[in-house]
Amino acid sequence: MTVEPISRVEVEHVASLAKLSLTDEQAQKFTTQLDEIITMIEGLDEVDTDNVKPTTNMADATAILREDVAVNAHQKDALLNEAPETEDGFIKVPAIIDESEDA
Amino acid sequence: MSQSYESITDLHHALVNKDVSATEITKATLADIHDHEDALNAYVTVNDEGALAQAAKVDEAGVDAGNLFSGVPVAFKDNLTTNGLLTTASSKILENFTPIYDADVVTRLQNAGAITIGKTNLDEFAMGASTETSYYGTSHNPWDVTKVPGGSSGGSAATVAARDVLASLGSDTGGSIRQPAAFNGIVGLKPTYGRVSRWGLIAFASSLDQIGPMTTNVTDAAAMMNVIAGRDDRDATSSTKAVPDYVAGLTGDIKGLKIGVPREFLGDGIDAGVKAQIKAAIKQLEDLGATVDEVSLPHSTHGIQAYYILGPSEASSNLQRFDGIRYGYRTQNAKNLDELYIKTRSEGFGDEVKRRIMLGTFALSAGAYDAFFMKAAKIRTLIIEDFNRVFKDYDVIVGPTAPTPAFGIGEETKDPMTMYMNDMLTVPANLAGLPAISVPAGLVDGLPVGLQVIGKAFDEEHVLNTAYAFEQHTNFHTLKPTMNEGGRA
Q1: Ramachandran category for residue B150: left, alpha or beta (phi over 0 → left; psi -120 to 50 → alpha)
Q2: Could you tell me which InterPro entries the record lists for this protein (chain A) (predicted)?
Q3: N or C: which end of chain A has fewer CB within 10 A?
């Protein structure tokens, strides 16, 4: 694979996918740094992985199922207590749709 | 006061014999911690009131003579949830997070009578090798306070090295227990993946993370494993395999033990002083009756590359949950939900966490998935196969824990790549899910060096016993830090 440097546009796109906004300075810095890291990572290309199965799970056994029993931990108040804003036993958030936003 | 006890067993006997009460040892420990905090910044939260309340309960009930941890102060890395006690993962985004449940390891230690003395500093969300990415400031190395304590479990390592406490817990995703253990001249064990429940560990990379003990000596690490290892239904990846008595396995006899030394672990990029110290350690193991051969883990040199794809990929997924809705930091004045997410995360995460989230998001994105994520997952298989091949003929693998001794604060923060290279010798064990320990192996220019021992999956016994045999024939673990600048003379 030829190493194409990651562009600032790509970095900003990835940031938006990850729900992050970057300052000008950050975008610039991250573009350089991510490019360096990705260039380092691309050294993997020299390894032949044809016919190699990927490893994505390290558990040593197949899943053990618990009994299908509902449990009520009675922790609603404690949980709501951790939420930044609540009202009438619900977590409060701002409007989901903002009129000014492009669809 | 912990300083007058060389081991958990020593302290336990003093508690049982009523030479000291749980309250007295807890008070003395808190005093030591506060004395050292200016120099070390090892803690995010010191649990003064809670610890004294727990100690009072132990004293009231009487110290349990059958329980080694009864009345023993223990520090927890601040990415382990503690019921009712602030848990930040050293991030601003959790600056006000008080969990409503204990991590499984915390429950097990508390049931054994341990005192929760405080929550130790780490790199934000355990992403780093120095604690310098912590929102709550850098911790300092007690051997030379101008140096980093390593990371990410740097606070847990520094407080044990300073002998505030005899035991702490850390977590290890790519070396975060072993590297700080090496930098601080203490023992740190990353158990086999699945040996210890991850329930209540704030997830970084779920296929790599493991919790493990950090102690002043191998016996104490084994004793801690006896308490924290075992199946937990709340962690589906925790193993149902029987837990052996790890302390009973410490015979100190390694005659005939077959040791492999990977040539890749003593190659380029390893400090000459570290190399010399590790070669001397290997000679020592040979003198104790082990057979030593050079072996090869050819794909281990690609470990760092695979790790910096897989770790960030899993992190980018795990850290989606921090959105300002249910707990933790929330931005002010967001005009809609999307803006709430974006502002909360942008204000709440530090730069290193953002870098890794973006790296992972990139590696998992449509155009890059095959070339990055899948490629790394396949390299992981090759690394596992390398270990399997060597472990057909050898009992353990040894080498250095880290390529250098502790580096200076601020020295490596400007360039993430330099920082990432700290993990080159530790990530292979995480990628393969294997148990690995760092045990003190002497000093280079007044700073500690760690000997790493890696074992077969669920064979903590050989790992611990090899480290124990080495420890019993050296005095490195008895060396104590200066708490000053400039290292030990």
Answers
A1: left
A2: Asp/Glu-ADT_sf_sub_c, GatC
A3: C
Residues of A in contact with B85 (CB under 8 A): none
Judge: B194–A56 Cβ closer than 8 Å, yes or no: no
B398, pLDDT greater than 60 = yes
Q: Does A33 touch chain B (CB under 8 A)?
A: yes
The pLDDT assigned to A103 comes to 44
CA distance B115 to B112: 9
Give the domains, in start order, of chain B with CATH numbers: 2-252+463-478 (3.90.1300.10)
Q: Which of A1, A44, A97 sits opposite B376 (nearest CB)?
A: A44
Its ipTM equals: 0.91
Mean pLDDT of B395-405: 97
Contacts of B305 in chain A (CB under 8 A): 40-41, 43-44
Instruction: Report the relative pairing of strands B115-120 and B73-77 from DSSP bridges.
Output: parallel
| Nearest residue to B250 via CA among B226, B284, B234, B267 | B226
Give domain limits for chain A: 1-47
DSSP 8-state code for residue B335: S
Per-residue pLDDT tens over the stretch A10-44: 999 999 999 999 999 999 999 999 999 999 888 89
